[in-house]
Design goal:
The complex is a heterodimer of chains A (about 190) and B (about 190). Chain A is an alpha/beta fold and about 190 residues long. Chain A has 2 domains: about 1-45, no CATH class; about 60-190, no CATH class. Chain A contains 3 helices and 12 strands, in the order H-H-H-E-E-E-E-E-E-E-E-E-E-E-E. A 7-stranded mixed beta sheet of chain A has the order 1-3-5-10-11-7-8, with no helix packed on it. Chain A has a 5-stranded mixed beta sheet with strand order 2-4-6-9-12, with no helix packed on it. Chain A starts with 17 loop residues before the first helix and ends with a strand. Chain B is mainly beta. Chain B has 2 domains: about 1-40, no CATH class; about 45-185, no CATH class. Chain B contains 3 helices and 14 strands. Chain B has helices spanning about 15-25, 35, 45-55, and strands at about 1-5, 15, 60, 65-70, 80, 90, 100-105, 115-120, 125-135, 140-145, 150-155, 160-165, 170-180, 185. In chain B, the strands form 3 sheets. Chain B has a 7-stranded mixed beta sheet, with no helix packed on it. Chain B has a 5-stranded mixed beta sheet with strand order 4-6-8-11-14, with no helix packed on it. The longest helix of chain B is centred in the first third of the chain and has 10 residues, at about 15-25. The chains are: A alpha/beta (about 190), B mainly beta (about 190). Chains A and B meet through helix 1, helix 2 and helix 3 of A and strand 2, helix 1, helix 3, strand 9 and strand 10 of B.
Chain lengths: ~190, ~190
């Protein structure tokens, strides 16, 4: 039901339903001021999911499964992805490219992994740009490893160990990559197929 | 004073004078209903959002005393480990799903003391490990036993040390890097 017009500031067009009236009455208990609302909500461009995935601690991480494939979800953007000690090589597929998608992959096993973690965009057109630091656990050396920045759409992290943390950020087409891989074997970038 | 029925003549929608004033001030909002309704699906608490996003509230020093209790209310904050005169034990709060902290060493020189992160109970053990970057030229991973190790000691750490912990409600995942001349250690209570 819509109540009579004109009740709000004598404005003829501002009619409200009873349900809206109840909400308006409830707003009397709001302690947030208009200035605060304008500052924090009006200019906000982050979605609720983006806020939750970074700020809500219990929603801020994903335990990836010990399987040969794993599909990273767009809905999990911003989350830390904790990778377990794998029993077989695992290929993780990034979701379809959308500007702003970002992920952090952390190796969280209790010992150095004997398997490899492969992260791919699934298409060379969606290549990786950037590189990672390789901390060589055998030779106690440190080196940089780069994507070719044009077709490399696959990163193979061979037998990762503690300290491995790799980040991806998408611009809508390509993926920036950076981070550290701790392993006896150097990681490698390659074309998808 | 409470008026009844003034909101669209809806009998149950009563408001006090203070509430009426608050509603009037909201008339200055430029945020749309859709923009405000975004809050409906935000599950992060105000504290969590502030601790992650409000720069001035996004960090916390562990101070210079020998014991420091990390607060659940400070979840998400970067915790600064500063120069200390004696080793410091940093006790984590009671585990709760989603509690997370980043500990970073800030000083003007390598630390001569240790920082010990303690969950308080072997039931609440660490899972994972850290990379030890030995400033004498080696690099090696150091792991928790993933079953009972609940004390993590950063021995005389240096710049570049950054350790993260994240709880699932019982255990604490741990990852990061410790830079220093001496290998960090995991141990039971």
């Amino acid at each position: 039901m819509t109540w009579s017009k004109g009740w709000i500031a004598n404005e003829p067009s501002s009619s409200v339903t009873s349900a809206q009236a109840q909400i308006i009455a409830a707003l009397g208990d709001v302690t947030t001021t208009a200035a605060e609302l304008n500052a924090s909500v009006d200019a906000n461009t982050a979605t609720a999911a983006e806020i939750n995935n970074i700020c809500d601690g219990s929603a801020s991480y994903v335990k990836t499964t010990d399987a040969t494939t794993y599909a990273v979800l767009a809905a999990n953007t911003g989350k830390v992805h904790l990778v377990p000690d794998l029993t077989a090589h695992c290929t993780m597929s990034l979701p379809a490219e959308v500007d702003g998608l970002k992920y952090t992959f952390v190796y969280a096993g209790a010992a150095e992994d004997a398997q490899n973690l492969i992260i791919t965009s699934g298409a060379n057109a969606n290549f990786f740009l950037g590189g990672v630091e390789h901390q060589d656990l055998d030779n106690n050396t440190s080196a940089t490893v780069y994507s070719n920045g044009s077709t490399n759409a696959k990163l193979t992290i061979t037998t990762p160990g503690a300290g491995t943390m790799v980040n991806f950020l998408c611009n809508g087409t390509t993926w920036w990559v950076w981070g550290t891989v701790c392993s006896a074997t150097a990681p490698a970038f390659a074309v998808f197929a | 004073m409470t008026w009844k029925g003034w909101v669209a003549d809806f009998a149950s929608a009563t408001v006090t004078a203070a509430q009426a004033q608050m509603i009037a001030t909201l008339g200055g909002a430029t945020a749309s209903a859709a923009e405000i309704n975004l809050i409906d699906t935000v599950t992060a608490t105000s504290v969590e959002i502030v601790n992650k996003c409000d720069g001035g509230n996004s960090y916390q020093s562990t101070g210079t005393t020998t014991a420091y209790a990390v607060l659940a209310a400070n979840t998400g904050k970067l915790h600064q480990m500063v120069a200390i005169a004696a080793s410091q034990t940093i006790t984590l709060p009671t585990p709760a799903a989603g509690l997370n902290y980043k500990f970073v060493f800030f000083s003007t020189a390598d630390e001569g003391q240790n920082f010990i992160i303690d969950t308080g109970s072997d039931t609440n053990y660490f899972l994972g490990g850290v990379q030890h970057e030995d400033t004498s030229d080696t690099s090696a991973p150091v792991y928790s036993d993933g079953g009972s190790n609940s004390i993590f000691t950063m021995v005389v750490p240096g710049a570049g040390t950054e350790v993260n912990v994240l709880s699932n409600g019982t255990i604490w995942w741990i990852w990061g890097r410790v830079v220093g001349n001496t290998v960090p250690t995991f141990a039971d209570q």
